[in-house]
């Protein structure tokens, strides 16, 4: 029985670890400026936890076999513990865990403590059962007023957000269902939700943030490669949660300018 | 009316109703809790099976159910989570085993408040019935998940199941909170006041320490959830705005304003994180007890184990914000929540090292209880080590609300805790029912369940890495999820096998209850007090004798002792020292 435990526990350990090391299923390639730091912290944590995982499981299996009851052959060591060992592994674990925490903190601080740079492109993201809307402020750089009583999801993008067309700064606001961003330029996001909590999740950008009714949450990230990236909703928001997705198209600055000009022209 | 003292001292009550239904005997109440949890775990497991079927064959038409719609899938996951967390993970380890064995292990004739004890069981049962009623409400059971985030949970029109079903859901939880508060008071008082002569705190078995600290966590946590639940009911039905700001649902402006959706999350997780430890601490206690008993060795570092339980309990109240790194909560607070969460890994690691230290140079007997206990340690390690990923806010960016989280908590608070219950069942069954369980059936059940749970839950980590969000009822909408479907299919097949083998466990349980070989008073050659009395124990636990405790709980293989174990009640002179 001890041998069977050793075999099964080791097998489970090696098979599980194999798929992590082979990266059969892994994080999508990071396409934002922050991805490198996040992935490095992930890898450090992964190696540390992986080593502990393999050692602990293999030790468990080995002890089960090694110290199995073999009748009079086995001698039990009568011991209530070992203070030195206790202190040693408590200290080691504390250093490991707290160390990992401190290593990751600067990355978090860079992402979440600093506001977006002055030249970042402002985009408002609004979550609604079950779609994402993206609003660009237009040439005046100002988002126009919205009014909850004007919200009508059935009649077009601007009405879905309840845009108050009598407000002068809302005239040039562009609202779309697909997010366009210029490459290598920071985006200054404002996240909102009109009904329930949604979560704006772009795996390739290593970006996730809840959009909460009643809050305007400011966030930023910088895409570094052009391409199409899927946007998901990561917070359960109702029966259509699974189909609340969108597309982020990262394009060159020139293509972005062309696109936004065409949208402005459509509005006239 | 009889006073508490008289109830203890007098002979067992006559008549079926007083003896088995409205019983004041903690042993009967413990068994009642156990069977309630057993019924609940089968409901919960069945729901998960339906979910796994729906994910792989979304168009499948099932007998009696028809086709599972996306909203039905969400109802299933809500009810699965709620039933498992409250009526299984909280009910069986604490209400079941704790009720039965805490008084006996400390040498008490019963709980401190037998009437309160009976009341807390029956209140729990009412809560369970109200929970099940949600399935039959108009619109069905709620779809807001077991965490019930507002405003989704606070509005009547946010989705199907959010009308009467959601009211029944939160009402059931509130009733459950009341029951748990009563239970917690009883456990704490009993542990502090009813210990036998010589049963000092530092001679208590680690199971008792675990139940005691769990009760304290329950006392502090369930009160908060109860209040939060009442506020949610008010928001839902009386138009208050605790959790709901001005929102527009389907183009309709709702009448709320100024509430905070994050307030619900703070209150819920202030309960919710300690709840994780409420589920797992009793399992840790059982694992400690069994690893020592079946390794024939004293527990490694008894004091460190006690302090680790206390540290886990204490720190458990300071980490709730790690569920909220992506919620819009101040990013600065993430620093302290993250640090505290990493810190809680330290006592958890101490426990693991000490379990391995207990086996080291022991003489291990591989009877079924020990197999489950070793399974517990393996699952605890696997589930625990994904914790330090999720505890770092920066890694929560890719991992939060993905299957990685689902894999993490299922391994640690789900199946590890359930292995603790399997271990407890195999170990205490002879004492509770007077017969032995079938060893071969237990072994078959152990091996298939161990491999099966890894096969279900380890792939969830891979899905999470690939960015698979949780709570998706269909896997074909997002293009990047499609390549992951084969893995999902594998998990569904693994779930079929693992759930199927649980029938062997249940068969073994009931068959052995009537047909198993008669158990002796101490079949495992254990040391704690429940093994020093008759099997099954008499109504007052020790047959009119007041036990006196002379030894620590885990005196195995003491040099010079006549046997390889010294029971806690053995005369003081059995060993030279200690």
Task: Assign the structural class of chain A, choosing from mainly alpha, mainly beta, alpha/beta, alpha+beta, or little secondary structure.
Answer: alpha+beta
Give the percentage of residues in beta strands of chain A. 15-25%
Q: Strand order across the biggest sheet of chain A?
A: 3-2-1-5-8
* CATH T-level topology of the largest domain in chain B: Cytochrome C Oxidase, Chain A
**Number of DSSP E strands of chain B:** 6
Low-confidence stretches of chain B: 1-8
Rg of chain B, rounded, reads 24 Å
Classify the beta-strand content of chain B into a percent band.
under 5%
Low-confidence stretches of chain A: none
General form of chain B: globular
What's the overall geometry of chain A?
A: elongated
Per CATH, the architecture of the largest domain in chain B is Up-down Bundle
CATH topology of the largest domain in chain A: Immunoglobulin-like
Largest interface: A-B, 101 and 114 residues
Report the CATH C-level class of the largest domain in chain B: Mainly Alpha
Fold and architecture overview:
The complex is a heterodimer of chains A (268) and B (578). By secondary structure, chain A is of the alpha+beta class. Chain A has helices spanning 2-21, 35-66, 83-112, 157-160, 253-267; strands at 121-128, 131-136, 174-176, 179-182, 187-193, 198-202, 207-211, 217-221, 227-233, 246-251. Chain A folds into two domains: 2-69 and 80-112, no CATH class; 121-267, Cupredoxins -  blue copper proteins (Immunoglobulin-like, Sandwich). In chain A, the strands form two sheets. In chain A, strands 3-2-1-5-8 form a five-stranded mixed beta sheet. In chain A, strands 4-10-9-6-7 form a five-stranded mixed beta sheet, with helices on one face. In chain A, α1 (2-21) runs antiparallel to α2 (35-66) and α2 (35-66) packs antiparallel against α3. The relative contact order of chain A is 0.13. In chain B, a hairpin with an 8-residue loop joins β5 and β6 (565-566). In chain B, 61% of the residues lie in helices and 2% in strands. Chain B folds into two domains: 27-259, Cytochrome C Oxidase, Chain A (Up-down Bundle); 314-516, Up-down Bundle (Cytochrome C Oxidase, Chain A), CATH 1.20.210. Chain B is globular and about 80 Å long. Chains A and B meet through α1, α2, α3, β7 and β9 of A and α4, β3, α9, α11 and α12 of B.
């Amino acid at each position: 029985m001890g041998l069977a435990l050793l075999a099964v526990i080791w097998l489970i350990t090696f098979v599980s670890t194999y798929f992590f090391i082979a990266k059969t299923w892994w994080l999508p390639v990071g396409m934002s400026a922050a991805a490198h730091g996040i992935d490095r912290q992930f890898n450090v944590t992964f190696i540390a936890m992986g080593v502990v995982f393999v050692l602990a499981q293999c030790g468990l299996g080995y002890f089960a076999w090694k110290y199995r009851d073999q009748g009079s052959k086995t001698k039990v060591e009568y011991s209530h513990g070992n203070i030195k060992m206790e202190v040693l592994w408590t200290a080691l674990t504390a250093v490991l865990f707290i160390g990992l925490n401190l290593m990751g903190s600067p990355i978090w601080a860079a992402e979440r403590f600093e506001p977006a740079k002055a030249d970042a492109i402002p985009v408002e993201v609004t979550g609604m059962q079950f779609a994402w809307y993206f609003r660009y402020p237009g040439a005046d750089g100002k988002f126009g007023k919205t009014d909850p009583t004007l919200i009508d999801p059935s009649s077009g993008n601007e009405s879905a957000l309840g845009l108050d067309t009598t407000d002068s700064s809302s005239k040039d606001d562009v609202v779309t269902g697909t997010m366009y961003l210029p490459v290598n330029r920071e985006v200054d996001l404002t996240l909102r939700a009109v009904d329930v909590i949604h979560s704006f999740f772009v795996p390739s950008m290593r970006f996730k943030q809840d959009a909460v009714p009643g809050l305007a949450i400011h966030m930023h990230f910088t895409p570094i490669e052009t391409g199409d990236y899927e946007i998901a909703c990561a917070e359960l928001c109702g029966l259509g949660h699974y189909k609340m997705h969108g597309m982020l198209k990262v394009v060159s600055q020139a293509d972005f300018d062309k696109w936004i000009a065409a949208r402005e022209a459509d509005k006239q | 009316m009889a006073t508490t003292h008289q109830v203890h001292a007098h002979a067992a009550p006559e008549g079926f109703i007083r003896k088995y239904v409205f019983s004041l005997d903690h042993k009967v109440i413990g068994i009642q809790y156990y069977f309630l949890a057993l019924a609940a775990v089968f409901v919960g497991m069945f729901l998960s099976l339906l979910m796994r079927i729906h994910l792989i064959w979304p168009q499948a038409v099932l007998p009696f159910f028809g086709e599972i719609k996306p909203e039905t899938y969400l109802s299933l996951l809500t009810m699965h989570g709620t039933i498992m967390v409250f009526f299984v993970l909280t009910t069986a380890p604490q209400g079941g085993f704790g009720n039965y064995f805490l008084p006996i292990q400390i040498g008490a004739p019963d709980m401190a408040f037998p009437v309160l004890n009976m009341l807390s069981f029956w209140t729990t049962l009412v809560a369970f019935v109200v929970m099940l009623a949600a399935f039959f409400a108009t619109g069905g059971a709620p779809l807001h998940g077991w965490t019930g985030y507002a405003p989704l949970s606070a509005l009547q029109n946010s989705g199907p199941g959010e009308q009467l079903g959601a009211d029944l859901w939160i009402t059931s939880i509130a009733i459950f909170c009341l029951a748990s508060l009563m239970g917690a008071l009883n456990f704490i008082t009993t542990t502090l006041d009813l210990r036998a002569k010589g049963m000092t705190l530092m001679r208590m078995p680690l199971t008792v320490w675990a139940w005691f600290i769990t009760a304290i966590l329950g006392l502090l946590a369930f009160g908060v959830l109860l209040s939060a639940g009442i506020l949610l009911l008010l928001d839902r039905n009386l138009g208050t705005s605790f959790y709901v700001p001005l929102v527009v649902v389907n183009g309709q402006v709702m009448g709320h304003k100024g509430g905070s959706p994050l307030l619900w999350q703070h209150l819920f997780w202030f309960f919710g994180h300690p709840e994780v430890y409420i589920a797992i601490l009793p399992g840790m206690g059982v694992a400690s007890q069994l690893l020592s008993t079946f390794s024939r060795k004293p527990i490694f570092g008894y004091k460190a184990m006690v302090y680790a339980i206390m540290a886990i309990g204490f720190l458990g109240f300071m980490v709730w914000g790690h569920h909220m790194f992506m919620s819009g909560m101040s990013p600065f607070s993430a620093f302290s929540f993250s640090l505290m969460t990493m810190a809680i890994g330290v006592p958890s690691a101490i426990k693991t090292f000490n379990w391995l230290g207990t086996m080291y140079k022991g003489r291990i007997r591989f009877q079924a209880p020990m197999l489950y206990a070793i399974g517990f340690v393996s699952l605890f390690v696997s589930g625990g080590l994904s914790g330090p990923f999720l505890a770092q806010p920066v890694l929560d960016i890719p991992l939060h609300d993905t299957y990685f989280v689902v894999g993490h908590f299922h391994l640690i608070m789900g199946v590890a805790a359930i292995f603790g219950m399997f271990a407890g069942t195999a170990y205490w069954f002879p004492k509770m029912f007077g017969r032995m369980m079938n060893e071969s059936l237990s072994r078959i059940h152990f091996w298939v369940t161990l491999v099966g749970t890894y096969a279900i839950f380890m792939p969830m980590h891979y899905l999470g890495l690939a960015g698979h969000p949780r709570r998706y009822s269909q896997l074909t909408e997002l293009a990047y999820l499609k390549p992951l479907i084969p893995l999902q299919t594998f998990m569904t097949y693994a779930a079929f096998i693992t759930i199927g083998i649980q029938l062997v466990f249940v068969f073994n349980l009931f068959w052995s209850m009537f047909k198993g070989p008669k158990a002796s008073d101490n079949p495992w050659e254990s040391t704690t007090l429940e093994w020093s009395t008759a099997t099954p124990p008499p109504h007052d636990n020790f047959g009119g004798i007041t036990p006196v405790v002379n030894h620590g709980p885990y005196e195995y293989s003491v040099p010079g002792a006549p046997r390889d174990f010294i029971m806690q009640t053995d005369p003081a002179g059995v060993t030279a020292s200690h």
